[in-house]
Amino acid sequence: MMTLGFYLLITSRDFFKNYRCGEKAIYFITINFLTSMAVTGAAGIAGVLMSRVLLLFDNFPISEFMGLGKWTSRLGCIVKWLPMLITFCFFGWFVLNLVSTTWIFLLPEGWCSRRWNYAGIAAVTNCRIWYRGDAKCIDAQEKELIDSDMVSVCNDGEELSNLSFFWFTPKSEDLSCSIGEVSICKAYKILFSSFAKSNSAVVDWSSPELSGCSGAEAANEPPETFMTPGDTSDLYRYLLMYCVGWNITLLTLTLLFFYIKFSSKMDSIFHLPSKPKENIFLKLFRPFSPFDR
To answer: Is 120 within 8 Å of 227 (Cβ atoms)?
Structure first.
């Protein structure tokens, strides 16, 4: 549930603002989350199914299952081989954690580690306001023409530069330049939006309404100007906690399984005998079956 909640926070593009990241990086991060939820969910469902079937064999003598005919052997097959499915899920989870942990430390920029400063955050916020259609200077018809999918690129430095949102960043931290204000919204609309009627439109940047905005001063500034060097974004810190947390969870569950397996006395009617020429995957996964001794 925590992974799902984290996934929803990222895809909503509302909770996290100060990270610099392209659309492709966010896509791979969300795929990582979905894969993690799918693998752990499958392992959980398989575990519940196995426990229910084992409970049946525990509550009734084996003779009472004989009347089920072929279903007796099918139930036995499920109990015998379902642990292999769970092991396969855990192995996939291990590989996913290994790749994620290696990636997040070796290539942190791919996990949105770069952090915007106050001006960069203002550009991101203005971009989101505009492409969500929340700007006060656009009417209902114009809102329908705005591509809302562009919200996904609002944390990309190159896209913010191409869309000229750096023009609408505050000159200092104590000033404001928000497209949420009508006058500033109109300035962006007539200068850079798809609704601009003329390429030669001009605005008075010295007016009281626009005096706090960077304007043309930011025209040739690279995105790096609006970064906070030496600091990491909030999203990256959460992702780091996510990776570390999943690794600890996987290690704890694995150690707990082996502790219970070798410390408990289990007299089971199920057994997984080894064969000289068995599949290499079976040899690899065999220690993770409770029926292998």
So the answer is: yes
pTM for the predicted model, two decimal places: 0.82
The DSSP H or E segment spanning 69 is none
Instruction: Give the residue ranges of DSSP H helices in the chain.
Output: 2-12, 23-59, 70-106, 118-131, 140-145, 157-162, 182-191, 234-263, 280-285
What CA–CA distance (Å, rounded) separates 32 from 52? 30
Straight-line distance from the first to the last Cα atom of the chain, in angstroms, rounded to the nearest whole number: 35
- Please enumerate in sequence order all residues whose Cβ is within 8 A of that of 215, keeping only pairs 6 or more positions apart, or say none: 167, 205
**For 146-177, what is each residue's pLDDT tens digit?**
888 899 999 999 999 999 999 999 999 889 99
The structural domains of the chain, with segments of one domain joined by +, span: 2-112+235-288, 116-232
In residues, how long is the chain?
293
For 189-262, strand residue ranges (E) read 227-232
Pairing, β 227-232 against β 114-116: antiparallel
